[in-house]
Design a protein that fits this description.
Keywords: Periplasm, Signal, Transport. Pfam families: LptD_N. The protein is mainly beta. It is built from one helix and twelve strands; from the N terminus they run αββββββββββββ. The longest helix is centred in the N-terminal third of the chain and has 27 residues. The chain starts with a helix and ends in an 8-residue tail after the last strand.
């Protein structure tokens, strides 16, 4: 190859590399605009009610957002798009959700007996045995709410157990910057 051929190719290669590096950033910021892919053992659709119920090892993906549950109920809004997604686990396994907020941030992972994803607000409620891991920080309680875009967390404890144990409290583990996870 002569140097003449390399010179015109270098700007094209640089542009291609820039697009590849920028790709994940664009994909993560546009999760809400990505199609929703769902797999399950069974599906029941009621077009008039605007509902779909998936059962049996349900897996949902929308961009970097992933959800696993035993049962997922989708409710369409007036415009025909997704309004809410309610996911439930089994008695031995909680429903699970994860999202990659940005390439520089750790995966956000959440569990709950029930998860409710509010598509318009991009908000997840974790109900019953709720747990959220964000970076090195962990939040547990009867109820944990997470806003995907603002990354805000709200949590509440449940009622105390009969023995008066800390079942009614919110627990947090906060990791200082530079600390280990």
């Amino acid at each position: 190859m002569t140097p003449r051929r390399l010179i015109p190719t270098l700007p094209a290669a640089t542009a291609l590399l820039a697009m590849l590096l920028a790709g994940p950033v664009l994909a993560l910021e546009s999760d809400a605009q990505q199609p929703i892919h769902i797999s399950a053992d069974q599906l029941t659709i009621d077009d008039q009610a605007g509902t779909a119920v998936y059962t049996g090892t349900v897996h949902v993906e929308q961009g970097s957002l992933k959800l696993d549950a035993q049962r997922v109920e989708l409710q369409r809004g007036a415009s025909g798009g997704l309004s809410t997604m309610r996911a439930t686990g089994t008695s031995g396994q909680r429903a699970y959700i994860e999202q990659q907020p940005s390439p520089q941030e750790s995966l956000v992972r959440g569990w709950g007996d029930t998860l409710i994803y509010h598509a318009g607000e991009r908000r997840v409620e974790m109900l019953g045995n709720a747990e959220l891991h964000r970076g090195g920080d962990t939040f547990t309680g009867a109820y944990v709410e997470y806003f995907l875009d603002s990354r805000q967390v709200n949590a509440r404890g449940g009622q105390q157990s009969q023995g008066g144990e800390a079942g009614g409290r919110v627990n947090m583990t906060l990791t200082p910057e530079g600390g280990s996870n």
